[in-house]
Every structure is written in C-alpha cells, then in structure tokens.
Design a protein that fits this description.
The protein has 140 residues and is an alpha/beta fold. It has one domain (3-63, 71-130): Rossmann fold. 31% of the residues lie in helices and 25% in strands. The chain is built from three helices and seven strands, in the order βαβαββββαβ. It has helices spanning 13-26, 38-50, 112-127, and strands at 3-10, 31-34, 59-61, 72-75, 86-89, 103-109, 132-136. The protein has a seven-stranded parallel sheet with strand order 3-4-2-5-6-1-7, with helices on both faces. It is globular, with a radius of gyration of 14 Å.
C-alpha cells in the first residue's frame, strides 16, 4: 500500500518541491512529478534549471525522447508511469492511479486554499488505510 508523506507549512510550494527533488537526485532516486496545470509545469521546469545556481536537476517531460533515461519526469498523465517508487503530487486533487507508487509525496504551502485542499486529500488517504507521515517544514 502507498505510504503518503505530507511536507506542510512550506513558504513556497514549488521551491520546496525543487529542494525535495534535489535531495532525491543526490541519493540517485528517480521521481515522477504530477503537475496537472501546464503553466505550473513550465514554472517548475524553469525552476529545476535555475533554482540552484551551480547545479542542474536532470528532468524532462514524460513525452520527451529522453524520458527513458531521465531521473525526474514531469507529467500530466499517470496512466503509464515509467517508475513506480516515488510520486510527487503538485496538483490540488488526489492524483489518478497514485496507488501504483510505493511513496506519494504531497507538498503543502501555508496558503489557506492549499491547506484546505490538502486536508481533503489527507482525509481520503487516511480513510483508505494509507500510512501517513506528516513533516512540518515551518522555519524553526
């Protein structure tokens, strides 16, 4: 059963997603990133190129000819994911077919609307028996 991680209280949802992906890449872990909004996917793509000035996070869209050899895939379609270990959800809804993945990562900002939608997803996962790990990312 999919284990769900909620990283909450982040100031910048996409920035936090970049940081999580950077840590995963440093550990040589592949990731599928569900980004259903095209404009958000474009922004994330740009951030993955520029967020860390002296490094690059290898990524591409799932329809790219390089998708088979790229560790971080951005997608709007989870029908046939290339890997089934880690899914990062940047959508506001429950990602389709998330049960195929071993781990699902949710990133929740401090914005009220984001928190409300995340609570609904949290309730859904909990009601369906998924183990949930909450990680508070508020600055200390």
């Amino acid at each position: 059963m999919t284990k769900v991680f909620f990283y909450h209280n982040v100031q910048d949802r996409l920035g936090a997603a970049c940081s999580l992906l950077a840590r995963a890449w440093a550990q040589k872990k592949d990731f599928t990133v569900f980004v259903p909004a095209p404009e958000q996917a474009q922004l994330l793509d740009r951030l993955l190129w520029t967020r860390f000035p002296l490094s690059f996070l290898p990524h591409c869209h799932d329809r790219s000819p390089l998708a088979a050899e790229t560790p971080i895939l951005l997608t709007q379609d989870l029908q046939a994911p290339r890997q089934d270990q880690r899914l990062l959800n940047l959508g506001d809804e429950i990602p389709p077919n998330f049960e195929r993945f071993t781990n699902l990562i949710e990133v929740v900002s401090q914005a009220d609307e984001d928190k409300i939608q995340a609570r609904q997803r949290f309730k859904h996962y909990k009601a369906h028996g998924h183990e949930i790990v909450a990680v508070d990312m508020a600055p200390r």
